[in-house]
Amino acid sequence: MRVMGVDPGLTRCGLSLIESGRGREVTALDIDVVRTPADMELSRRLLLIANAAEYWMDTHKPTAVAIERVFSQQNVRTAMGTAQAGGVIALAAARRDIPVTFHTPSQVKSAVTGNGAADKNQVTAMVTRILGLQTKPTPADAADALALAICHCWRAPMMERMAQAEAAAAEQKKRYEARLAQVRKEAKAR
């Protein structure tokens, strides 16, 4: 699986590409941070982010995109910008039929460090260790984008098995209800 991890943001948007191997083996393929000036018009900033994400998708051909879900932030304006940046990237992926999954910060932290309340330093240290990098990825947006991709590589198989189990359970319930309706109909006919 080749996953594009995205730490969305208007000022700095982290992009990463990870490839998963056997088990929990992951390899970093590329990393970047898209920067837009705070004094630029919002629509232009979103266009720059979308263009960079589209270039990445067309160049790297990810099989999945993992984006950090805006969970809760004190500053509503920052949360809106983060959500908008994530939205234009999700749209770019949808136009290319690339599945998109949103992961909460605590899911990412938990997957990478084992602690859903880990701080940025802990996440960066574990990303560096997991990927066997010589130096810590900077800025934090780059490390966060890598963490998102790692999280997705490790969670996706479990999420797929859960979806299959839910689908099988729903199908079994449907057959059971159909059989029950048939038994009731036969009982009424007697």
UniProtKB/TrEMBL annotation:
CDD domains for this protein: RuvC (cd16962)
UniProt xrefs under Pfam families: RuvC
Names of required cofactors: Mg(2+)
Keyword list, A-Z: Coiled coil, Cytoplasm, DNA damage, DNA recombination, DNA repair, DNA-binding, Endonuclease, Hydrolase, Magnesium, Metal-binding, Nuclease
Parts forming coiled coils: 159-186
Bound cofactor: record note: Binds 2 Mg(2+) ion per subunit.
Binding site for Mg(2+) 2: E68
Cellular localisation: Cytoplasm
GO MF annotations, alphabetized: crossover junction DNA endonuclease activity; DNA binding; magnesium ion binding
Binding positions for Mg(2+) 1 per the UniProt entry: D7, D141
Catalytic activity from the UniProt record: Endonucleolytic cleavage at a junction such as a reciprocal single-stranded crossover between two homologous DNA duplexes (Holliday junction)
GO cellular-component term (any): Holliday junction resolvase complex
SUPFAM superfamilies xref list: Ribonuclease H-like
Superkingdom to which the source organism belongs: Bacteria
Listed GO biological process terms: DNA recombination; DNA repair
Record-annotated active site: D7, E68, D141
EC number: 3.1.21.10
Protein's job: The RuvA-RuvB-RuvC complex processes Holliday junction (HJ) DNA during genetic recombination and DNA repair. Endonuclease that resolves HJ intermediates. Cleaves cruciform DNA by making single-stranded nicks across the HJ at symmetrical positions within the homologous arms, yielding a 5'-phosphate and a 3'-hydroxyl group; requires a central core of homology in the junction. The consensus cleavage sequence is 5'-(A/T)TT(C/G)-3'. Cleavage occurs on the 3'-side of the TT dinucleotide at the point of strand exchange.
NCBIfam families found in the cross-reference section: ruvC
HAMAP family given in the database record: RuvC
Subunit architecture: Homodimer which binds Holliday junction (HJ) DNA. The HJ becomes 2-fold symmetrical on binding to RuvC with unstacked arms; it has a different conformation from HJ DNA in complex with RuvA. In the full resolvosome a probable DNA-RuvA(4)-RuvB(12)-RuvC(2) complex forms which resolves the HJ.
Family from the record: Belongs to the RuvC family.
Protein name: Crossover junction endodeoxyribonuclease RuvC
Phylogenetic placement of the source organism: Bacteria, Bacillati, Actinomycetota, Actinomycetes, Mycobacteriales
